């Protein structure tokens, strides 16, 4: 696990905008369409990825993650990021795209991709607009983690919001949702 006491870059505009706690209250309901977005995929050459790119093609898992800076990870999210990355092929083999969304800026995100050897797309949302559209909540300088499973029609089929008792949906839970979606 990366451990560092380098806090450079932590106190930025994003930190102060996300400092005060806002609970995870996403009103998105199962069976309803999800908000669209366009973000930069840092893993794959800074290409723009739109959620609509997958419509009528394949289901998508949005994995919102909490990274403070390129060297400061949420202790709940770091193992989750690693587990998703290690199992990325299991998702793609089932025809599911796994998109990880972070609030770190492009440069910080590029360092994360390199340091963690990420295979899955890492989408940069430094303005936190997509985090806010999905109402995942925030606390202490960064948005909270959450996971959303969206079918190929753009309909929400599963959501997991952060709580102190259940931080992130585990790989097995997400894969079980993939099996359900792959049958459609």
TrEMBL record:
GO terms for molecular function: peroxidase activity. InterPro entries: AhpC/TSA, Thioredoxin-like_sf, Thioredoxin_domain, Tpx_Peroxidase_subfamily. Keywords: Antioxidant, Oxidoreductase, Peroxidase, Redox-active center. Coiled coil: none annotated. Residues 28-183 form the Thioredoxin domain. This is Alkyl hydroperoxide reductase. It comes from Desertifilum tharense IPPAS B-1220.
């Amino acid at each position: 696990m990366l451990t560092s006491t380098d806090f450079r870059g932590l106190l930025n505009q994003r930190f102060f905008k996300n400092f005060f706690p806002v609970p995870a209250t996403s009103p998105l309901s199962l069976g309803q369409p999800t908000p669209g977005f366009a973000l930069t995929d840092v893993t794959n050459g800074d290409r723009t990825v739109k959620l609509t790119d997958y419509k009528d093609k394949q289901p998508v898992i949005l994995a919102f993650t909490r990274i403070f800076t390129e060297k400061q990870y949420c202790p709940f999210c770091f193992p989750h990021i690693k587990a998703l990355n290690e199992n990325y092929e299991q998702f793609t083999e089932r025809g599911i795209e796994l998109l990880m969304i972070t609030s770190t800026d492009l440069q910080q995100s590029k360092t994360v991709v390199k340091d963690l050897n990420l295979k899955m797309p890492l989408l940069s949302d430094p303005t936190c607009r997509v985090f806010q559209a999905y109402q995942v909540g925030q606390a202490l300088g960064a948005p909270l983690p959450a996971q959303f499973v969206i079918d190929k029609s753009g309909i929400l089929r599963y959501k997991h919001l952060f709580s102190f008792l259940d931080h992130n949906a585990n790989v097995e839970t997400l894969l079980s949702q993939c099996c359900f979606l792959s049958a459609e």
